[in-house]
Design a protein that fits this description.
There is one protein chain. By secondary structure, the chain is of the alpha+beta class. It contains six helices and seven strands, in the order βαβββαββααβαα. A hairpin with a 6-residue loop joins strand 5 and strand 6. Helix 5 packs across helix 6.
């Protein structure tokens, strides 16, 4: 098998403004989403802003991750930046930070590595943290299976002092919103049924409370 060029790692980002908080926690920004990176160069430093799929900014990559991203882009590789987690801090400013997964490869390998990258995105959305720093044997598996291969290794969750993990998978409501966006009749039915159930439960509770 040929030696396959590839890069995979976990990196970090930080919200830079409190206006980004509702965007981070809304259903428009989901774990596993493929984020857009906007590079902004200045005399002092480079900033890599992260936008969700609807164009709203959620923060900026840290310096180390910016360097890794720029290197992949300089090679003209296909580069994915997936949202992996969101943390809240106990500082007075209340700003948030999180992790991303970077997966990059030459565009010539898109047929195999495109499905593999999508598989990593789906694992993240389910709350699974796959190891993405791969050996050559694993890269060969990706080629041989046309991207169906999935990493068996796991990346430990971070537990930094002063921060708490607040988002690392798709919630039930987020899955229902996604189903609605995709016009999935089955999921839409389940979503509406769940809402009707909650309303009925609330009515029943009120009737019991007031003795009806």
């Amino acid at each position: 098998m040929p030696v396959v060029p590839y890069f995979g790692t976990y990196g970090r980002f930080s919200a830079t403004d409190s206006a980004q908080h509702p965007v981070l926690f809304g259903a428009d920004t989901l774990i596993g989403d493929d984020l857009t990176v906007r590079l902004e160069q200045s005399a002092k430093s480079d900033t890599a802003w992260l936008d969700n799929r609807f164009g709203a900014c959620i923060g900026a990559l840290d310096a180390a991750t910016v360097g890794q991203y720029r290197l992949c882009r300089a090679k003209e590789w296909t580069t994915h930046v997936f949202l992996a987690s969101i943390y809240a801090t106990d500082k007075e400013d209340g700003l948030y930070w999180g992790e991303v997964v970077i997966i990059a490869y030459p565009s010539a390998y898109e047929e195999s590595f495109g499905p593999f990258a999508q598989g990593v995105s789906e694992m993240l959305s389910d709350g699974i943290r796959p190891s993405v720093e791969l050996q050559q044997s694993s890269l060969n598996e990706i080629l041989e299976t046309n991207g169906a291969w999935r990493p068996s290794g796991r990346e430990p969750a971070l537990h930094p002092r002063g921060s708490a993990l607040v988002k690392d998978h798709h919630s039930f409501n987020e899955r229902m919103v996604e189903a609605a966006r995709k016009r999935n009749p089955g999921c839409l039915f389940v979503g509406w049924a769940f809402i009707v159930f909650l309303v009925a439960l609330a009515v029943f509770a009120l009737m019991k409370l007031f003795g009806f």
